[in-house]
Design brief:
By secondary structure, the chain is of the alpha+beta class. Among the domains are: 162 residues, Leucine-rich Repeat Variant, CATH 1.25.10; 114 residues, Immunoglobulin-like (Sandwich), CATH 2.60.40. It contains 35 helices and 10 strands. The strands form 3 sheets. It has a 5-stranded antiparallel β-sheet, with no helix packed on it. Strands 6-9-10 form a 3-stranded antiparallel β-sheet, with no helix packed on it. A hairpin with a 7-residue loop joins strand 4 and strand 5. The radius of gyration is 38 Å and the shape is elongated. Keywords: Cytoplasmic vesicle, Golgi apparatus, Membrane, Protein transport, Transport. It is found in: Cytoplasmic vesicle membrane; Endomembrane system; Golgi apparatus.
């Protein structure tokens, strides 16, 4: 005999009345024991009540797996009360990981064919919630039949179940294509919304379906036009907008159908203009429809005037009081700034005003868009606004703002002096937040502007005298004072106010930097080197500099100690060479656009050299005879090897200068993976200075119609190799050839063994989780030999 157990309502009250977690667990364990006993005794009358209590326990987070088979028994029952609880239990307790879910396939098939609408609704809900790929393949014909049932209740649920089936098994697209055309003639908004969603899923997953449904674009346009022109309806209108959910879904479908298709885009242009001009924007529902209209205009081949209208709508969104709408507008304009730069530029003042937003996410988006709007015509005005924002921006935005200003100044600087002033302002305001290469870039810029050496050194000296806490600024100032200290003392710079500086003040300032607790070891190194260079540029006695250098011979920092020891040795033993060793630094080559132009000029000069006639053999013989004179009078002395007949070859040998080895041949790229438009390519580089190191760049591209999200690439190599994975550039690959993801693999192969890779790719594509594990053992021989 089964012991009496609590009713569901009593169980809920007792659990809620428990004062401690231990009391709650005691109540639940006791009731679960009653439920198990009831299941064992096979009580058919109260089985659904026991399962209902078990489902409540499951919702609280306690284990309830022992009720899975009871769900199957209740589903197979002929009573509706049993089926209702049984299907609810199946949706909560069963999923694809349990083989038991396959056992209800036959029960669902029978219930779908019974013709009882409530039972059919329960079966369709369960199938759309936990149906696996095998269940979808088996039950697709039954769902297809229900799509054309006269009852709207059943058809709505059948359409949603078909959407789940397409997501699980894309090859079922051909089954649901014919019913969709008939369902578009429905007047029931719920059925129409489900049909549009189903067509959208079909078009995203099947190119054949996309071509098929492009024929119904005029019909979709007519449906949307009817919605826009329809007056107020109590059944469908929300905030004065006629069924915004259906309008948004139709606009999304039109965006997919009109993408890269001229005819379809032309058909919907007039409608989009009508929606954009007639939609009420006083409520959020109208803004949602308007934003979806903007996205559709930008994604199809729309007219130029329509695209300008879309950008102006986003500009009006920036003036909206709702922060969410302003954020959406900034994000959308950031996507459009490359394709419609001039149209977005019209809203530049509004974008700049958004920098003062108190919301961090809004100000960050406004900063990104402001930096994207900088060009050669507005660089001065935009830099003033951005520099003003840099002084008051939150600390978490200061690094991004400083880096953006430096990059924009480097790209669009009208003059070198303006470029130097801009970088100095950034270093003075947010020096601790700039990128690591800011110091090298500024020293390179100053070194290449000979006419600005006096101006730069005086500006930096003044900035250093005011503040020594900004370490990048202190490093640049110390370098500049060391290089051009003589110009600082001359005081003949006409571009700024004259400032009389004597040697003692300069030396005292550098000593202050050396002694400051805020100075980093690298900064002290700059200051010590600057003092050493000033020993050849100042006219006075060097005893003070020698004393400072000797003090740091016992410094705890090894790098600074080594420099001090070397400089002290230079004073004591090689003082006659000090002036030559401490000359001004030559200009260092750098990467960038200017370097590319110089490379082109060098290439042209090399072509001219190749066109010059090669030295003749008598000239080379004469040069060998001259070399024989240096070997003495011995007649059997060995001659040097024959000289290279290339231009300059004899001179290179004569001076015994090392010749640069020819660059290694490029290693061909390798495609290692391709599936549904997702492709992974590997490119290889072996640094000449370290042949045992192999740098592999994995590039993931996406040419399909759907975005690839949560992309993760993992790799493994044999034990004889060492692998280091760098962080990827992102985890999302946009559709239709969007920005790819790159990730660097560093493989150390000292034994030059054949390289083998084992890769695992995981990502989401078309709402499906994909995992691929494969081995790559056909890497080019040049990558490891």
């Amino acid at each position: 005999m089964v012991a009496p157990s609590l009713k569901l309502q009593d169980l809920i009250e007792e659990i809620r009345g428990a004062k401690t977690q231990a009391q709650e667990r005691e109540v639940i364990q006791k009731e679960c024991a009653h439920i198990r006993a009831s299941f064992r005794d096979g009580d058919p009358v109260h089985r659904h009540r026991q399962l209902a209590k078990l489902l409540y326990v499951h919702m609280l987070g306690y284990p309830a797996h022992f009720g899975q088979m009871e769900c199957l028994k209740l589903i197979a029952s002929s009573r509706f009360t049993d089926k209702r609880v049984g299907y609810l239990g199946a949706m909560l307790l069963l999923d694809e990981r349990h083989d038991a879910h396959l056992l209800i396939t036959n029960s669902i098939k029978n219930d779908l064919s019974q013709g009882i609408q409530p039972v059919q609704g329960l079966a369709l809900c369960t199938l759309s919630t936990m149906g696996s790929a095998e269940m979808c393949r088996d039950l697709a014909p039954e769902v297809e039949k229900l799509l054309l049932q006269p009852s709207p209740y059943v058809r709505k649920k059948a359409i949603l179940t078909a959407v789940h089936m397409i997501r699980k098994v894309p090859e079922l697209s051909s089954v649901f294509l014919p019913p969709c055309v008939h369902l578009l003639h429905e007047r029931h908004h719920g059925i129409l919304l489900g049909t549009i969603t189903l067509i959208t899923e079909l078009c995203e997953r099947s190119p054949a379906a996309l071509r098929h449904f492009r024929k119904v674009v005029p019909q979709l346009v007519q449906i949307l036009r009817t919605l826009v022109t329809t007056g107020y309806s109590t059944e469908h209108s929300i905030s004065g907008v006629s069924d915004p959910f259906l309008q948004v879904q139709i606009l999304r479908l039109l965006r997919i159908l009109g993408r890269n298709h001229e005819e379809s885009s032309e058909t919907m242009n007039d409608l989009l203009a009508q929606v954009a001009t007639n939609t009420d924007t006083s409520r959020n529902a109208g803004n949602a429809v308007l934003f979806e209209t903007v996205l559709t205009i930008m994604d199809i081949r729309s007219a130029a005037g329509l695209r300008v209208l879309a950008v102006n709508i986003l500009g009006r969104f920036l003036l909206n009081s709702d922060r969410n709408i302003r954020y959406v507008a900034l994000t959308s304009l950031l996507r459009l700034v490359q394709s419609d730069h001039s149209a977005v530029q019209r809203h530049r003042p509004t974008v700049v005003d958004c920098l003062q937003e108190t919301d961090a996410s809004l100000s960050r988006r406004a900063l990104e868009l402001s930096l994207a709007l900088v060009n050669s015509s507005n660089v001065r005005a935009m830099m003033q606004e951005l520099q003003a924002f840099l002084e008051s921006c939150p600390p978490d935005l200061r690094a991004d703002c400083a880096s953006g200003i430096l990059l924009a100044a480097e790209r669009f600087a009208p003059t070198k002096r303006w470029h130097i002033d801009t970088i100095l302002h950034v270093l003075t305001t947010a020096g601790t937040h700039v990128r690591d290469d800011a110091v090298a870039n500024l020293t390179q810029l100053i070194g290449g502007a000979q006419e600005l050496h006096a101006y730069s050194v005086r500006r930096l000296y003044n900035a250093l005298a005011e503040d020594i806490s900004q370490q990048p600024l202190v490093q640049v100032a110390a370098w500049c004072i060391g290089e051009y200290g003589d110009l600082l003392l001359e005081g003949n710079c006409e571009e700024i106010e004259p400032l009389q500086v004597d040697e003692e003040e300069v030396l005292a300032l550098l000593e202050k930097v050396l002694q400051s607790h805020m100075s980093l070891p690298a900064t002290r190194g700059y200051a010590l080197t600057a003092l050493m260079k000033l020993s050849t540029r100042l006219q006075g006695d060097n005893n003070r500099i020698r004393q400072v250098v000797s003090i740091y011979r016992s410094c705890l920092d090894v790098e600074l100690q080594q420099r001090a020891v070397e400089y002290d040795t230079l004073f004591r033993k090689y003082d006659h060479m000090r002036a030559a060793i401490l000359e001004k630094m030559p200009l260092v080559e750098r990467d960038g656009p200017q370097a590319d132009e110089e490379a082109k000029e060098s290439k042209a000069a090399a072509q001219l050299l190749e066109a010059a006639p090669a030295p003749t053999e008598p000239q080379a013989s004469q040069l060998l005879d001259l070399l024989d004179l240096l070997d003495g009078a011995s007649g059997d002395a060995q001659h040097p090897p024959p000289l290279d007949p290339s231009p300059g070859g004899a001179l290179v040998y004569l001076l015994d200068l090392p010749c640069a080895p020819p660059p290694p041949a490029p290693i061909p790229d390798l495609k290692v993976f391709e599936r549904e438009g997702v492709q992974l390519n590997l490119s290889f580089i072996r640094p000449p200075e370290n042949p045992a190191l192999l740098l592999i760049t994995a590039t993931a591209t996406n040419s399909s119609e759907g975005d690839v999200t949560d992309f993760i690439c993992q790799a493994a190599v044999p034990k004889s190799l060492q692998l280091q994975l760098q962080a990827p550039s992102g985890n999302t690959v946009p559709a239709r050839g969007g920005l790819p993801i790159t990730q660097l693999f560093r493989i150390l192969n000292p034994n030059k063994a054949p390289v083998r890779l084992k890769l695992r790719l995981t990502y989401n594509h078309f709402h499906q989780s994909v995992q691929e594990i494969f081995e790559v053992n056909n890497l080019p021989v040049e990558s490891w030999q």
